[in-house]
Specification:
Tetracycline Repressor, domain 2; flat
């Protein structure tokens, strides 16, 4: 009986951790970290600690709320049926209480930095959970809505230091905003069959076809000029601008191949390149600040 209790407790803890989707949360917080560095933030300050912890908590809480809302549809997809709620490791009330606590704590930590950070964190949570999540079943336009909270992290990191919504944090928001379309649509192309089981139509035209592939190629092309914006606004130097152009063109290649072949392997290549693209790009920005 004692062993069963210990096993049950361990499963619950694992369930709560899985609810936060820490790998995804860490990728989101990474963007906030780069925004913080580009604003010349002090890594030894309480602001940095509260930004990282607060960012992880509000992102994890949003992921949890998303899973609560999509509990029934997660049961239908092979990539999500083993999540804590469909697998009955956690109940809806348990998940709800946990998400409220973690989200509230995350917002408290951001509020301790400045009011602007609190507003950005709250805005990201509300748009992601209340608007984007239910919209995914209604229209492919949901991806555009979801790109808004997905672009807030570097803006949040910068504003945590500056407490000012100026040109520089706005540019970081725009860079991450345009990056999300080839990134997410490549993922949607790869997982389209699974998504359709749950009623999600996330590709631009709703299907794997030339129209969707063209949109992916188009937004991948946008990354070339968009990645140059920090240089154009004199945030960063010349070599980071040329480096940004090079890596944007490298990422553009599989998007072009996808358009002409409609082969899933190029969507997979684009997806993996997009994971590398953003940290490499922001790292170059940080090392070549003016």
């Amino acid at each position: 009986m004692e062993n069963i209790t210990k096993l049950s407790f361990t499963l619950k803890i694992r369930g709560y951790i899985a609810l936060l989707k820490l790998r995804l949360s860490s990728l989101v917080v990474m963007s906030a970290f780069f925004g913080f560095l580009l604003a010349d933030g002090n890594l030894s300050s309480y602001v940095f600690l509260n930004l990282i912890l607060g960012g992880v908590l509000i992102t994890g809480s949003s992921n949890g709320f998303n899973q609560i809302i999509e509990n029934k549809t997660d049961e239908l997809m092979s990539r999500t049926f083993s999540r804590p709620l469909p697998s009955k490791v956690l109940s809806i009330p348990e998940a709800l209480i946990f998400c409220i606590i973690t989200g509230g704590l995350g917002l408290y930590l951001l509020a301790s930095i400045n009011f602007s950070s609190f507003i950005l964190g709250l805005l990201a949570m509300v748009i992601y959970t209340v608007i984007y999540t239910p919209l995914k079943k209604i229209t492919p336009f949901a991806v555009f809505v979801g790109a808004i909270p997905g672009s807030i992290p570097p803006l949040l990191g910068y504003v945590a230091v500056s407490n000012d919504f100026g040109l520089e944090p706005g540019i970081l928001f725009v860079v991450q905003f345009f990056w999300q379309f080839p990134h997410f649509w490549a993922l949607a192309w790869k997982l389209d069959d699974d998504y359709k089981k749950a009623g999600f139509r996330l590709l631009p035209s709703g299907d794997r076809n030339q129209k969707s592939a063209f949109q992916i190629m188009l937004y991948s092309a946008f990354l070339v000029p968009v990645s140059m914006l920090p240089w154009a606004s004199e945030m960063t130097g010349t070599w980071s601008m040329w480096s940004a152009v090079v890596i944007s063109l490298i990422m553009y290649y599989p998007a072009v191949k996808l358009y002409f072949t409609l082969d899933k392997k190029y969507a997979t290549q684009l997806m993996f390149m997009s994971f590398l693209y953003l940290p490499i790009l922001f790292t170059m920005y940080c090392f070549n600040q003016i």
